[in-house]
Amino acid sequence: MSDAAVTSPRRARGGGGAARRAERTAVSVETAKYIARNIPNYEVLTEEALTVIEANAETVLAEIGVNFVDNPDALARWKAAGAQIDGERVRIPRGLARKLCSTAPSEYVQHARNPERNVVVGGKNLVLAPVYGPPFVRDAAGGRRYATMADFEKFVKLAYMSKWLHHSGGTVCEPTDVPVNKRHLDMLLAHMVLSDKPFMGSVTEPSRAQDSIEMCEILFGADFVRDNTVMTSLININSPLTFDSIMMGALEVFARHNQASIISPFIVGGAMAPVSVAGTLTQVLAEVMAGVAYSQLIRPGAPVVFGTFVASIDMNSGAPTFGTPEASQITYGAGQLARRMGLPYRSAGSFCGSKLPDAQAAYETANSLNMGLLSGVNFMLHACGWLEGGLVASFEKFVMDADQLGTLHHFARGVDMSENGQAMDALAEVGPGGHFLGCEHTQSNFKAAFWRSDLFDYKPFETWDEEGARDTVALASARVQKLVDTYQQPPLIPRSRRGCAPMSPPRKPLCRMLSAKPRATRWPRASAPRR
């Protein structure tokens, strides 16, 4: 962790003075509230199709089953619940998984250390979070390289400064210059002190999930964490139909402590699932039901999210493809299935397979973001920064995507049919043959009438040419630098001064956690990013 990330104001002798001064002098970073849709969801499946897929998923669970590997405790829990166990294969009788899933909440609040940044996951809401998991980063100056902790901290700062992002995310890149047994502590600390938005916990090993809980107890207070959800974390299923002990161990920790988990199959159609839309949806539903049901075996009422990561495959190269119509159909259909289960839904993102933030990246990303909005997604991971199939987190694409997320906010508002929205006074004032630039209605509404990019260049050609004829990547590079240069760390203000319960004394100093004896000595270079 860099010195800049851990620097905090010194406590005054009188107690509380430094915090009060920091609160008065802090620069307020504008963050839009999470999206509340005022538009209908797009539904691609008929009632008959949904019924068939649900019945087929029950058949998969009852007759084919799912594997819970290297996890005898999970097998024992399933057996006690009424499932049939054959080695590591778990066959779940029809209706049992859905019954267990019924105790999961339809929405929940994830608390941020700044209560003004709290988010509600579920219902008609959409929470946007950054890219997650790339081992590489890219920028215009340095090109493609392994990610470092300095890169990670820079992404956290950009997410904090981005108006349209509601969430700080988790592993925004994989800092390979920090040992794997300690990097989760550094990453989580960066989210805690460099931003005051909600964040995600570690899932790469059950003990690291427990470390995440204990660090949150230091930040929020143990009593607050016991009674509230302060993390939403990603639990991937090893599709097809396999639940490994690492992911399930992390799920067990988070569920036991009432922290939220996204139960997310990792689907590349034709490789990890059938090539057909209906077949893939059947597998997705079966896997999610088994995962959600297991979370409820750990703790009924634990918050969980119906997740799916969907890509198709290029049958020539074997590479995943993004922004395709088949992926859209699966995303729309999975949203319908999630709503029928009464669960929050996670999918979509700024997906693209391009190596650079170019036209291919823009087309594929636009398709992916829009399908997420229209499919009813409640938590959108990878909303900005994704490049090269998730192997790369790009600084320029991060700010390009973060800028475009504003269009989702504006489109989700729907059409204003108020008296002001109908604009009859403007039509009467201008009449035939006039123009609306100077009328009273335009003067009253022009500041908020249209969404406007903070990145794109709308100047006349001559001005654009005189200023260097910069393309979007060049503009994005300049914006990255501007955001980093103007960043100010949000003060760590006690929750009692934010209108919340006082923080309880930490059970373990943070420095002790960061200097704990390593559990392993591996230094992995690059691994597959979490989806």
Classify the beta-strand content into a percent band: 5-15%
Fourth CATH level, the homologous superfamily = Trimethylamine methyltransferase-like
Structural class: alpha/beta
Q: Into which percent range does the helicity of residues fall?
A: 40-55%
GO molecular function, one term: methyltransferase activity
Enzyme class: transferase
EC number: 2.1.1.-
Protein name: Methyltransferase
Describe the structure.
This is Methyltransferase. Residues 1-23 are annotated as: Disordered. Keywords: Methyltransferase, Transferase. Helix 6 (149-161) runs parallel beside helix 7 (180-194) and helix 8 packs parallel to helix 10. This protein has 20 helices and 19 strands. It has one domain (29-414, 451-513): Alpha-Beta Barrel (TIM Barrel). Strands 10, 12, 13, 14, 15 and 16 form a 6-stranded mixed sheet that branches. Strands 3-4-2-11 form a 4-stranded mixed sheet. Strands 9-8-19-18 form a 4-stranded mixed sheet. With 531 residues, the protein is an alpha/beta fold. The longest helix is centred in the middle third of the chain and has 22 residues, at 277-298.
Concise overview:
The protein contains 20 helices and 19 strands. The two termini are 25 Å apart.
